[in-house]
Amino acid sequence: MHRLFGPYRSVFAIQGSRALFVVALLARIPGTAKGMLLTLHVVLDQQRGYGAAGVVGMALTLGFAIGSPIAGRMVDRHGLRPVLLVTGLAEALYWATAPSLPYPALVAATFAGGVVSVPVFPVIRQAVAAHVPGELRRQAFALDSMIVELAYMVGPAVAVVAVTGLHTATPSMFATAAMTLASMAGLWPLGRILTAGRAADLGAEPGSAESGPAGRKGKTARLPRGTWLNPTLVLVLAMCTAANLTLAGTEVSVVASLRQHGETQWAGLTIIAWCCASLVGGFWHGSTARPRRLPVLMLLLGLGTIPVGLVGGLGWQWTALALIPAGFVCAPTIASTAEALTAAVPASARGQAMGLQAAALTLGGSLGAPLAGSLIDSFSPVWGFAVTGVIGTVLAALALGHERWAATRAGRVLPGLIPAQLPPASDAPEARPRMSAKS
C-alpha cells in the first residue's frame, strides 16, 4: 500500500498542495455544468428545441476554444491576477444577464462569454506544473485528471437537479454568476505560485531574468514562438484533440447503443462505471514506476474504444465491462498530454501551452459528439464507437512513427512524448523544489 500511495503522499507533502487541489475541484465544478445549464435554459425557459440548444452550446465551445490560448498568452505577459480580474467580471456579467436575453442575442452573448470565460482549467494545470517539482509532476497531473473526472461527475448532475427541481434555469444561472466570482477569488492566490514557479524556471533558462513581484509581469527574455511551436508540440495537441474526440464520441455512442436495445435507463450507471475505470487508471498512472508513453496510452484508448459497440446487444452490463479497458487509460492519457506539454515548452510560454491544450480538448469534444451522432443516425451505434476509436488510433500511430523517425534522426527520444520521470527540457534542475498546475 505504501508503494501505491507513497508518490501521492510526496505531492501532498509539498506546502500548499492540498489547498491547490481543493481549489482545482471546487473551481471546476461550475465550469462542467455550464453546457447542461444552457441546454436546459434554452429548452425549458425559452421553449426551444435541442437543436437550438446545441447552437448555444457550440457558441460557448467555440468562444472558449478561441479565448483559452489568448488568456494563456495574457497570463504569460501580464501575470494571472489582471487576467482573472477581467475575465471574472466579464463572465459574471454574462451569466447575470443571459437569462433575460432573447435567443439570437443569447447566441452572440454566449460566444462572447466563452471568449472571456475564466481560464480555470489551463490556469490550474499551469499552477500544478509550477508548484510541483519535475520528478513528481506525473503524480500531480494524474491527481488533477482524477479531479477533472470527479468534477464532470458532479457538475452536470447538480445542474439537472437544480433546474428540474425549480422548473427554470434562471436562479441557477444567477448562482453561476456568483460562483464565477468565487472561482476568481479562489484562483487569485495562484498568481503568487505562478510567479514563483516562473522565476525559478526562468532562472535556469539562458538569458532570462526572474519575474517581478507576485501576480505581476517580470522582465523576462521570451523565446520566439517558433522555437517551441514545433512538430512535437503539434502532435501532442493533436492527440489532445483526438483523445477528447474519442471520449465525446464514446459518450454519445453509449447512450445511443443502450437506447437501441431498450436499456436507456442504464445509461447513467454505464457511464459512471466508465468514469470509475478512468479514476482507477489515473491512480495507477501516478503510482506506477513504469508509466506508458503518451502515444501508447492514446493507442490503447483508440483500440479499446473500437469494439465496444459489438457487445451492445448482449445487455448494458456487457457494454459497461467493454468500456473498462478504454476507460482505464482515459485519465492517464489526458494527464500525459499536460505532462508532455509542460516538458516541451519553456516556462515563459507555459500559459500559452496550457491554453492551447484547453482549446484542443474543447475542439475534440465539440467534434466528437456530432461526428458520432451523424454516424449513429446514418448507420448504427457500432460505427460511432468504431470511427472515433480509429481516429484516436491513427493519431497515436502517427505520433509513434514521428517519435521513431526523430529518435533515428537525432539519436534520442523526443522530450515531449516520453514519461515525465525524465527531466523536462526547459525546466530548472529537478532536485530544487519549487511552486505550480496540471486538458
TrEMBL record:
The keyword Membrane applies. Pfam families: MFS_1 (PF07690). One of its GO terms (molecular function) is transmembrane transporter activity. Keywords: Membrane, Transmembrane, Transmembrane helix. The chain crosses the membrane at residues 49-67, 103-124, 145-166, 172-190, 226-246, 266-284, 296-316, 322-344, 356-376, 382-400. It comes from the Bacteria. PANTHER family: MAJOR FACILITATOR SUPERFAMILY (MFS) PROFILE DOMAIN-CONTAINING PROTEIN, PTHR23542. This is MFS transporter. It comes from Streptacidiphilus pinicola.
